[in-house]
Amino acid sequence: MKKRSAKSGPRPATPRLGAVPRDGRRPRFSQELSVLYEDDQVVVLDKPAGLPSVPIPGSATPSALSLLSVRLKTIGQRAFVVHRIDRFTSGVLLFAKSQKDREVLIGQFLAHSPVRQYLAVVRGRVAEKKGTLIHYFQREGMWQQLRSQSDTHATRAELHYAVERLFAEASLIRVELVTGLQNQIRAQFAAIGHPVIGDRKYHVTESAEPLIARVALHAAHLAFAHPRSGATISVDGKLPSDFRHLVQELSRATRARR
Question: Are the C-beta atoms of residues 135 and 188 closer than 8 Å to each other?
Answer without folding.
Answer: yes
